[in-house]
Amino acid sequence: MTRIAAVRGALPPNRHSQAEITDAIARLCLPEGADRRVLDRLHASARVRSRHLALPLDRYAKLDGFGAANDVFVECAVELGAEAVGAALDAAGLTPGDVDMIMFTSVTGLAAPSVDARLAGRLGFRPDVKRVPIFGLGCVAGAAGIARVHDYLRGWPEHVAVLLSVELCSLTLQRDDSSVANLVAGALFGDGAAAVVACGADRLPGGDGPTVVATRSHLYPGSEHVMGWDVGDTGFQVVLDASVPDVVRTYLADDVDGFLADHGLTRQDVTAWVCHPGGPKVLEAVAETLALPEEALELTWRSLASVGNLSSSSVLHVLRDTLALRPPPPGTPGLLIAMGPGFCSELVLLRW
């Protein structure tokens, strides 16, 4: 089975309180003199205390279009990606030359050559390293990335694979857009990166992290409108429907119960719930539909409060924190969960 050898995160240096970000978004998105009570209410209810951003707050007003924002994305993504991958490889006791495949995911910027290609020479990957850049999975890509790395390593059990996620959500904020979706995104999403190093079953030593037992994807019918981007001249305009918690309540419990049952398990057997911090309403729906005890998602809530929703990077930060702060008993099962555009879910069964 695939073994997760190390998980490391990276955050940009510009850390701001939620109140500072709220004031900046009022200046960027609301008409001059507009009533900002809805903005203030949305930001106060997000349960986010602080976030790290790709740029200092005063520089966002100077971005003059999608091209300028995307240039910042490429520059920052390479820096954060190098930091995250380097730290994860060091923690796993491996070098860039050991890496056989790197998968890169982001939904907040575009690059060709892709970010993984730009990292190859800088970090010292072999010329024959396999590269798999992914765009479009959004928040689910942290979990889906682990699942697809697992698929690869089942076919190449002697290999080492790296999953890199970099999400710079602040660069997608739409100026002069006072829509609820734009304001909610401005309340929740932060910037960050994470890297996972995984080893196939025949790669020794493979580290002492959890193994991936199985994965499951579910694409929900008729839900394309729930989450994603409308792409226009100003870049990525967020699509964020209020029905996301209802979709969670409709499908997630059956998905989880069926997946666990296929492996002779029930929810009561799970010792760690590694859940993407989609936002308060989504997390409340997850806890409600799965009947989880209050402490089950404590690390997820903590991540949301301290750095916000980092899209695909977030669930990997929660996995890192679980391993560092709340390591479950060896041999017990854990479940990693994320959801994203499609609308879809990805479940990863772990054994600690």
UniProtKB/TrEMBL annotation:
Gene Ontology molecular function terms on file: acyltransferase activity, transferring groups other than amino-acyl groups
Keyword Transferase: yes
CDD domains: CHS_like (cd00831)
GO biological processes: polyketide biosynthetic process
InterPro entries hit by this protein: Chalcone/stilbene_synt_C, Chalcone/stilbene_synt_N, Polyketide_synthase_type-III, Thiolase-like
Domain spans labelled Chalcone/stilbene synthase C-terminal: 215-351
SUPFAM superfamilies, alphabetized: Thiolase-like
Residues the record marks as active site: C139 (acyl-thioester intermediate)
Cross-referenced Pfam families: Chal_sti_synt_C (PF02797), Chal_sti_synt_N (PF00195)
Entry keyword annotation includes Acyltransferase: yes
Segments forming domain Chalcone/stilbene synthase N-terminal: 4-202
Keywords on record: Acyltransferase, Transferase
Record family assignment: Belongs to the thiolase-like superfamily. Chalcone/stilbene synthases family.
Protein name: Alkylresorcinol/alkylpyrone synthase
